[in-house]
Model the fold of this input.
Amino acid sequence: MPVPPDVRFLKSHEWARKDGDLIAVGVSDYAIDQLNKEIVFLELPPVGRNVSVGAVFGVIEAVKAASDLYSPVAGKVVEVNESLPDNPTLLADDPYGAGWMIKVAPSSPADMDALLSVADYQKFCETEAHH
Amino acid sequence: MTDFNGWHMPLYYSGMTEEHNITRTSTGLFDLGHMGRVMVRGVGARSFLDNLTPAQLSKAKPGDVQYSFLLAETGCPIDDITIYTMSHTEYMLVVNAGNHDRAVAWIEKQAAHFGAVEIEDRSYSWGMIAVQGPEAEKVFRTVVGDSFPALSYYTFAMREDDGRWPTCIISATGYTGERGYEIYMPISGMEAVWTSLFDAGAKPIGLGARDSLRLEAAMPLYGHELTDATTPLAAGLGKFLDLEKGDFIGRAALLAQKEAGGPARKLIGFELTQRGPIARQGFDVCNSDGMKVGSVTSGIFSPTLQKTIGMAYIDAASAAVGSSLTVDIRGRKLPCIVVKKPFYKRSA
Done:
């Protein structure tokens, strides 16, 4: 799946992308593939919740297992994709578009610089897949 | 692909939910080669099985299939099985893949002690294929024709080698809650059976959907609802126990449990009152006071009901249908309600 070039990643497979003054956060297509694309439940934080880098902001659950979602940036959640929990197929169909999870007003926009580029993330996934 | 008790098996072919829905609406095709198949033969076969299992073998006619158990002296199952009566001197026992080794060892040990029976493990020389779903009959008849007899539920017939299919044992049984057949044949003939059913429109179904289908139908799975620490009475399977037929292994323990007022915990079905995370095996179930009253044995998000459902062993006092309980899912107590099993019943 083509990934927009300005998306940045955590090794735990969450992505972040600048969206005006905000940062949109979601989960990579690779991670959704690893869950067999069978997402049965998604728990997202309420608007107003403060998140920090590497802290749990939600839960994604597939038939096989549940996984925590980690925030790639610090700040305050100002928007939540409310339609996503009822339409989890969006996560597989359009992970970097309609499949966004939360939008964060960043407290430190430089958090983005510490994340993996598309190329580095894809390299990371290749090594992980060969384990 | 996944490792299932040493078998390399697909968790899904096209997708678990899609395969689940195919089996509920048209026809699913299952490769069940992993199930164990054990022949019991000899003049003593019937009395051997009468002693080995709690089944009513005296009432079984050739062509009958019975659901039963291999019980330990504790009254708890070593495995749950089906028994095919070929004749009163020949039976086929179908055991779970995960219990194959210990089930066969147990049968052989009891047979050596009993005498007059011969055990043949066909697990690696015969295969098993199931075709299940509301359209399964149509697909099956397209392939085998109308000369093969109509079978009522839990009966079987032999079908002779016709050049296309090998000699098969075909039963009207299954593990999905749908109608259909389970077909047993020498491994050399599996491909012919699989391919012809596939070509007639049956779609391959993996292990993931096999689990969600059986759970909607509230059928027990060994290692979840059945273990060597719970009796079939606790699992609500008392109707499969013939406690009057005379002695069998485990009978004394079952009678003692009955006389003591029945099992302290009962297997129940529950559903979450709102869409939520999956209540997985081992999660605590609590009453309205927050006290733990049991634990989950299996849980899924039901594709048919679009609800989070599961089964759990619950203290008998809290187990009534309609009871409000909670499931502790990673530290959050989510409300659930005890519901009647099965969760899903086919319409016809």
